[in-house]
Amino acid sequence: MTTPLRFAAQYIRMSTDKQDLSPSVQKQAIAAYAAARNVEIVASYEDEGRSGVHLKNRPALLKLLGDVTASKQFSAVLVYDVSRWGRFQDTDAAAYYEYHCRLHGAEVIYVAELFGAEPNPIAAMLKGMKRAMAAEYSRELASKCRAGQHVVIMRGFQIGALPPLGYRRCSVSADGQRRTVLDRGQRKLAVTDRIEWVLAPQAEVELVRRICHMYAVDGLSFTDIARLGRVEGWRAHDGGRITNRSIATLVRNEALIGNFAWGRRKSRRSIVACSPSRLEDCVPRIIDDATWARMQSRIAFEIEKRHIEGELVEKLRSALDKDPLLTMRDLRAHGLPGRHALRSRLGPWATCLERAGRSSAAHQGALLERARQHRDHAREFGHAMAHALRENGHRVFFGGAPLRPGLC
User: Fold this and answer.
1) 3-state SS class at 256
2) Which CA distances in Å does 151 have to 145, 177, 273?
3) Could you tell me the pTM of the whole model?
4) For 233-359, where are the alpha helices, taking DSSP H only?
5) pLDDT in tens, 121-170
6) How far apart are CA 280 and CA 405, in angstroms?
7) Which among 160, 190, 159, 158 is positioned nearest to 175, based on CA atoms?
8) Are the beta carbons of 168 and 199 closer than 8 angstroms?
9) What span, in angstroms and rounded, lies between the C-alpha atoms of 312 and 318?
10) Whole-number CA gyration radius for the chain
């Protein structure tokens, strides 16, 4: 016979902040279930506006799993249905977290499901089906959303984050009429509106052209350009400073030549496989093709250079693991370039050591200690040799200096 429940916790999740009735419906159903069985709810965990696909973005569920392990305040967790517990793409994940609670003395009860808390084959089969259906629902929804994004882009509109320096967002009505340019933090005038990128004020557009010219033609680095920007007081959309990182992002953005690309970077969290969406000549152009080509050529060269430097650093790190007292005279023995080539690519020897994860001061101290030990050993060897020669009747003079060939 099962022990009757006395204390329980409730877990509530809703996927978006627009589902206004979702929390109240879940709370009412859980409260009615608890009242009918004389169960007191002692804790409530809510993940509002959180996706059920990934656990790391659900702090309430993480706290619940931790509290189940740490304390014994409740003997059950009341959840509305299986999909509210999670739409994990791996259905074993949902079973694992449920078993984690049960293992520490807290049953997971779905109050709106046909099966109860009693473990039996029928309940296990239904739970497995429900978990698979919840996972498939999220996957299909993600596919539909991605297809909708592609259609919007192919119609010439822009989606995603704020536009780069030199552009502004413009709200466009359903019939294609431009309404107003939006400020930072301002939303579309209507839900059915779309967003188009338009050129920023002329001074900002000229600043973008100047930045591209300095990088592509003058050969300045991102750091040098950002330093000049601090001196001249350049400002981004939000009024903040223009950093070398924002400049590096700017010179890679295809909007500068009129193209819009979306979905080029594959997220590990993506649950659907999709190719990037790209539309050319849908954004006002700022720079010409020649400047763009020179910028991309320099970016590719610097990426290749960093790749080569990374390989050198990794080889140097491996050589130091094998020989912690490695010196520049021993570089070629470990398959590394000579001292001059290494210095030209990575910098001075102290910098090379720092990049390989070693302290140059500690390395130099270890080398000095080894040299001292060598001197002490040479002195002991010299005294021992002189003593042996004297015992054999030879006249030997040794002042304690390290012996050199031909001195005795």
Assistant:
1) helix
2) 10, 19, 17
3) 0.62
4) 244-250, 289-322, 339-346, 349-355
5) 888 888 888 889 988 888 888 888 888 889 988 988 988 888 999 999 99
6) 77
7) 190
8) yes
9) 10
10) 34
